[in-house]
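Forwarding these from the shared drive since the link keeps breaking.
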Amino acid sequence: MAVSSSVTGTWRWILIIEGLFTVFVGILCYFILPNNIRSCKFLTPAEKDFAEMRMQADMPVTDTATTHGVNWGEVKRGMLSISCWLSAMAYFGILAGLYSFGLFVRTLLLIHCLPQTDTPSSSPPSSKPSAATPPTKSNSGP
């Protein structure tokens, strides 16, 4: 199926406009978003102190034995956990269905919605005329 150049050009412009908008928003966010709590212009000093106190309270308590390496006991526990495997299988089942539908729905629509004129019929041709075809007149006699 050939695609006309006007359709291709339209898609190019849509992608260019979306890309320019994304770049513009990214540059705008670089200048508008604050780097940390202390550089926020829209917070009062009391709110900044409260936010830093909450950030410190939310930090996890670290154990020096587990911060410098992998705790293989936890890895083993995670690999042998039935809930982890069931969640992974459920996630795979959901995504396999979603992606197969999303990727092949166009093909299915093309197969089932287009007229099938080139396919031979599976039933043998009959000598009796069908109800849809009018009878033909024969020119065999005067």
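-- next protein --
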Amino acid sequence: MRQFRSPISCLLLLGALAACAAPPPPAPLTASEAIGQAEAALKRGETDKAVAFLIEAADKGSVPAQLRLGEMYMTGDGVPVDRAEAEHWLAGPATAGEAEAQYSMGEMYDLGGMGVLQDRAKAMLWYRRAADQGLAKAQYKLAEIYRAGSAGPENDAVAITLYRRAAAKGDINAEAALGTLYEQGRGVPQDSRQAIEWFQRAAAGGNADAMLQISYIYSQGIGISTNATQGAIWLHRAASAGSEEAQRRLAISTLP
């Protein structure tokens, strides 16, 4: 006897057959694969996709992804600046001992704003943790706080020690700071030649302000004989390196 199937049972059968024929869903990406996809998306200028991939990797515990997201939200690199969101991604790696994350946390509290209250005491704490691990830029930032007394009494001795540690690793900002201290005789004996030496180290790394200071020392004869030629040479170097003050001085000097 011939059997007839209802339309509904036929549809169910066809659906079952289609499900069997369909390819299996793709396997979830590993954290490293998600980071690779994020980098590829960034090269294509697809920031939204990159952020989604980074979040996928970060949620799987990838410290590089967490750091990247924190830096992006900290600086506004392809996303709106949101320091509260940056803190969300940086807090875990920083607490776990990642020096770069600790530095970024310090910088976030140092600057404040964009969802985070400025707190120099917290900034100091995070900078110190990164500095204790030998991160030169954290040593420099911590020295700046001690020198300015922005989170307690000024302490030039501690600042100088930290500047020297950072300068020994080639931090040009620390080198320039030591030049300024020797130029002013603050915390160290006034010594223009030492100042020029430190400024020259910073200038070799491209620090335009250091170039300007060398120009000023030679032009004004601060602690050394006046040398207008060297003053002019370093003023032009500073201007070429992007110093707006040097550019302004050159513009004034060419006025009729």
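The mean pLDDT is 90. Residues 191-251 form a domain with the Serine Threonine Protein Phosphatase 5, Tetratricopeptide repeat fold (CATH 1.25.40.10).

- D.
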